[in-house]
TrEMBL record:
<feature type="domain" description="Dyp-type peroxidase C-terminal">
    <location>
        <begin position="244"/>
        <end position="426"/>
    </location>
</feature>
<dbReference type="GO" id="GO:0033212">
    <property type="term" value="P:iron import into cell"/>
</dbReference>
<feature type="region of interest" description="Disordered">
    <location>
        <begin position="313"/>
        <end position="334"/>
    </location>
</feature>
<dbReference type="InterPro" id="IPR006313">
    <property type="entry name" value="EfeB/EfeN"/>
</dbReference>
<protein>
    <recommendedName>
        <fullName>Deferrochelatase</fullName>
        <ecNumber>1.11.1.-</ecNumber>
    </recommendedName>
</protein>
<dbReference type="InterPro" id="IPR011008">
    <property type="entry name" value="Dimeric_a/b-barrel"/>
</dbReference>
<dbReference type="GO" id="GO:0030313">
    <property type="term" value="C:cell envelope"/>
</dbReference>
<dbReference type="GO" id="GO:0020037">
    <property type="term" value="F:heme binding"/>
</dbReference>
<keyword id="KW-0408">Iron</keyword>
<dbReference type="GO" id="GO:0004601">
    <property type="term" value="F:peroxidase activity"/>
</dbReference>
<comment type="similarity">
    <text>Belongs to the DyP-type peroxidase family.</text>
</comment>
<dbReference type="GO" id="GO:0005829">
    <property type="term" value="C:cytosol"/>
</dbReference>
<dbReference type="InterPro" id="IPR048328">
    <property type="entry name" value="Dyp_perox_C"/>
</dbReference>
<feature type="domain" description="Dyp-type peroxidase N-terminal">
    <location>
        <begin position="90"/>
        <end position="232"/>
    </location>
</feature>
<dbReference type="Pfam" id="PF04261">
    <property type="entry name" value="Dyp_perox_N"/>
</dbReference>
<keyword id="KW-0456">Lyase</keyword>
<dbReference type="Pfam" id="PF20628">
    <property type="entry name" value="Dyp_perox_C"/>
</dbReference>
Length: 439
């Protein structure tokens, strides 16, 4: 019989965050202690029990308490990490991507009125506030018992249909309109759109499931699930050093996301004070696309070709014009053959803000894999999730250009699509959407 596995390094903590899918720095130590004898830290509340608290903007604000509940060494601080639910903006937008995500769209039940939806949003917000601090929800079946908050975030959005059904058409922001059709879209209506949107992210699958189940139970009679999609990303600590995530094509994806240190970051991602609908200030818009990767075709081209498709090195993520992952691309640079090094149809050139009148979005997608088709091809790809202050200054112009024929498009198929307006965050005692539903 083999001896028990030993861990030589600690999983990473979310000690400091980045919005662009970069793992938080690892809190590493080489302990060699038998995993089975180590314990998770359970955190009852961020303030009271000494968890690692990550601000809604992703930065660590406090940490205390590293021992297990029997006084022994904690196996990891990952479970103890709390991302506050309350704040100016909802959590789960700038939060560094957790390892697991569940996306759900709901349709209102016939007859569900504004009061019923307001009560639902209050129940959902209260549940999210409890679960995201590692507390249990009413009627909890202990699925997440023993675990801490595990960086759980719950993010809510509203679809255009909700405004019409609740008699709120006058308060629907003009930017919440159907996305235009794009060439080669192959959208499944049953897996697109919806009245309500929920994104649940966590570093633990059971914690995520527990949250989804609690939300689903408390929605009964008011809303029913229209579609659900499950995604995954790198687990914190999986790489030896913090890295931008890779997608299922093997590319480093997220390098040139806007950074929170950019002076225009908030302006580009969140709805500003001059908004046409005052209830939405501090909110955002999320565009969701299920994009299947035609991985067998992708595997059929060599690495140099794959790099030209994006315009970046597959190994390092650096632009093909040189430097490191975060170096600026030299879009004018030509090779010895006189050709552009980053070709005219390279994905990064076609999508870059400088060629799209500054259009920008915060990409926070997740990989998915739903098995293999009868032809053996993987049903896998990217749950593309983009946050922006206005889809007409973000996703729409960029996708319009990409769909006209960037070099990546032949390897993709857009299979589902949705757009939601995302209310601002709420304060303790309030609930998400209150300024719309009670305004
Ligand atoms: C409409 C917007 C975009 C869609 C849809 C999209 C799909 C998509 N992208 C990749 C892989 C990569 N994209 C990268 C960069 C990048 N992509 C978009 C927009 C969309 N991508 C933007 C705005 C950018 C940044 C461009 C820039 O300013 O440089 C990259 C390079 C690394 C990075 O910066 O993230 C990769 C890799 C896939 C696989 C995909 C659909 C499945
Ligand atoms: Fe992209």
């Amino acid at each position: 019989m083999s001896s028990p596995r030993k861990r030589t390094s600690e999983p990473a903590d979310r000690a400091s965050g980045s919005p662009d899918g970069v793992d938080a720095p690892a809190g590493r130590g080489s302990t060699g202690v038998d995993v089975s004898r180590r314990r998770f830290v359970g955190v009852a509340s961020a303030a009271g029990a000494g968890g690692l608290v990550v601000g809604a903007t992703g930065g660590a604000v406090a940490f205390a308490g590293e021992s297990g509940d029997d006084g022994g060494p904690a196996m990891t601080r990952l479970g103890a990490t709390v991302v506050p639910f309350h704040g100016k903006h909802q959590a789960g937008i700038t939060t560094p991507a957790q390892a697991k995500a569940v996306f759900l769209a709901w349709d209102l039940e016939p007859g569900a009125d504004r009061a019923a939806v307001a009560a639902l949003m209050r129940r959902w917000s209260d549940t999210a506030a409890r679960l995201t601090t590692g507390q249990s929800a009413p009627g909890d079946d202990q699925v997440a018992a023993d675990a801490g908050a595990c960086s759980l975030t719950v993010t809510f959005g509203f679809g255009a249909g909700l405004f019409d059904k609740l008699g709120l058409a006058a308060r629907r922001p003009a930017a919440l309109k159907p996305l235009p059709p794009f060439p080669d879209d192959a959208l499944d209506p049953a897996r697109s759109d919806g009245d309500l949107f929920v994104q649940v992210c966590a570093d633990d699958g059971l914690v995520g499931f527990g949250a989804v189940r609690a939300l689903q139970k408390s929605a009964k009679g008011v809303a029913r699930i229209r579609w659900q999609m499950n995604g995954f990303a790198r687990s914190p600590g999986a790489t030896a050093k913090p890295m931008t995530h890779r997608n299922l094509m093997g590319q480093i994806d997220g390098s040139n996301n806007p950074k929170q240190s950019d002076p225009k970051f908030d302006e580009k991602v969140f709805v500003g004070a001059g908004a046409e609908q005052s209830w939405l200030v501090g909110g955002s818009y999320v565009v969701f696309r299920r994009i299947r990767m035609l991985l067998d075709s992708w595997d059929g081209i060599d690495k140099a070709h794959q790099e030209r498709v994006i315009g970046r090195s597959k190994d390092t993520g650096a632009p093909l014009t040189g430097g490191g992952e975060h170096s600026a691309a030299d879009f004018g640079k030509r090779g010895p053959d006189g050709e552009l090094v980053i070709t005219a149809n390279a994905h990064m050139r076609v999508a870059a803000p400088e060629f799209n009148r500054g259009a920008t979005m915060l990409r926070r997608g997740y990989s998915y894999h739903d098995g293999f088709g009868t032809d053996g091809a993987p049903d896998a790809g990217l749950l593309f999730v983009a946050w922006q202050h206005d889809p007409d200054d973000g996703f729409v112009p960029i996708q319009r250009k990409l769909a006209r024929g960037d070099a990546l498009s032949p390897f993709l198929r857009h299979e589902a699509s949705a757009i939601f307006v995302v209310p601002p965050g709420c304060a303790p005692g309030g609930y998400v959407g209150q300024s719309l539903l009670e305004g």
